[in-house]
From TrEMBL:
Span list, region Disordered: 1-39
Name of the protein described by the UniProt record: eIF-4F 25 kDa subunit
Example of a GO cellular component annotation carried by this entry: cytoplasm
UniProt KW Phosphoprotein keyword: no
Keywords: Disulfide bond, Initiation factor, Protein biosynthesis, RNA-binding, Translation regulation
Source organism of this protein record: Physcomitrium patens (Spreading-leaved earth moss)
Family: Belongs to the eukaryotic initiation factor 4E family.
Amino acid sequence: MADELAAATEALRLDDSKGEELEEGEIVENPADRPAETKKHPLEHSWTFWFDNPNGKQKQATWGSSLRSVYTFHTVEEFWCLYNNILQPSKLIAGADFHCFKSGIEPKWEDPKCAHGGKWTAQPPRSGGKAVLDTYWLHTLLAMIGEQFDEGDEICGAVVSVRRAQDKIAIWTKTASNEAAQVSIAKQWKDVLDYNDKIGYLVHVSCSNKVC
């Protein structure tokens, strides 16, 4: 009997090396019952969401003074958490912009990474309503942060602009003089959007235009 009691007492110990014993009524947690930790899926680059809303007016003392960073995300899970908890572009007031740029790059022409670049701009067809704008924006974001562009290193970020006359989505790039890279980005972007109309490229400095 003494031997059985000793064996039973030993079985109640949590860890012999620490000498910890269970208190009366304490329940031992089965590790198999613990919820598995959610595995994160890191992105190749970190990205920052920005919001600009000059109250629908462009008359500002300093351009970009109403631009605000919202959140920087590093993983697929963080992106969806952010995306699912902010307004869709179709719900924004006229004059507002959403920006999604690589972390460390401000969505301004004056930023050193943008200064020698430009932007491709697409205009969602009005016939599809505002839902097309939301779809184009999401597909652009997924292609961009998912590194689907062969010349992804050339991409600074993307902007969706809600306007009364015509909504627009743009992809900003680093090096306007690298024409081959710009054309590659344009063609792949059009494939992502299933976009059949022409899109134009505006160089930030010279304001010269290209069409693809």
